[in-house]
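Field notebook, page 67. I keep forgetting to write these up properly, so this time I am using the form the group agreed on. The chain and the ligand, zinc ion, are recorded exactly as supplied. Prediction of the bound pose follows.
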Amino acid sequence: MAYFCKDCSYRGMKSGQLGECPACGSHNLTSRAMTFQEQPAPTKWRLVILVALWGFLIALIIGKIVH
Ligand SMILES: [Zn+2]
């Protein structure tokens, strides 16, 4: 199980003996198994929108240069 610290953004396979962050000692550790459900990951659509936005921006810039 992987761990993620919300305080210092430590990521690793180990936590402290009492479940604390090995990097900063915070108890704000979350395990990757718990956070996995929070990300349904519609990354395909996000990528399409990102590419479309960049295409629009580049077309706008090229339009300004040409005129
Ligand atoms: Zn930490």
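OBSERVATIONS:
- The longest helix spans residues 43-66.
- The radius of gyration is 21 Å.
FOLLOW-UP: compare against the apo run.
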